[in-house]
Amino acid sequence: MAFGFMDNIKNDSYFANKICDDLSFIIKHTKDITSDELNKNEILLDSMLFRLIQISENAKSLSDDYKKHHSDVPWTAIYGLRNKIVHDYGSVDLSIVYTTLKEDIPNLLRIMSRNDT
Predict the structure, then answer these.
(1) Among all residues, which ones are annotated catalytic?
(2) CA–CA separation, 9 and 17 (whole Å)
(3) Residue-wise pLDDT tens digits, 19-53
(4) 105: closest CA among 77, 65, 86, 84?
(5) What pTM did the predictor assign?
(6) Which of 76, 60, 79 is nearest to 10 (CA)?
(7) Does the residue 3 lie in any domain?
(8) CA nearest 36: which of 44, 28, 47, 27?
(9) Residue 5 domain-assigned?
(10) What angle do the packed helices 12-30 and 105-114 form, to 10 degrees?
């Protein structure tokens, strides 16, 4: 009886694809939203913050070799934003989050896609 354990191999490709999926999700759901709209929509804001945390968690699971080979990805910034969200949730600067969502995330997806995850 097969339980599909082999189908869920968690390697660099798996984690990089998870990151790209989260980046694409963020882009899709913030495409036409203004900063004010994001700040007023608690569910969307929480969802976007969760995705940013997930991106960092998946990035931490990538091998050191992968990160060295993809040194154009701002790994430290990804981890730093996650730490800020998790540890200072109440004092996260939403203008920085909005800029990250609208500018940095599309750029990060271009970098990750260029790196042929």
Answers:
(1) 82, 87
(2) 12
(3) 999 999 999 999 999 999 999 999 999 999 999 99
(4) 77
(5) 0.86
(6) 60
(7) no
(8) 44
(9) no
(10) 140
- Structural domain count of the chain: 1
Helices of type H across the chain? 12-30, 35-40, 42-60, 64-69, 75-87, 94-99, 105-114
Q: What whole-number distance in Å separates Cα of residue 66 and Cα of residue 85?
A: 25
User: From residue 23, how far is each of 17, 38, 40, 59, 60 by CA, in Å?
Assistant: 10, 17, 22, 12, 16
Residue 6 within any structural domain of the chain: no
What is the C-alpha to C-alpha distance for residues 83 and 79, in angstroms, rounded to an integer?
6
In a domain, 2, yes or no: no
Instruction: Report pLDDT digits (tens) over 49-90.
Output: 999 999 999 999 999 999 999 999 999 999 988 888 888 766
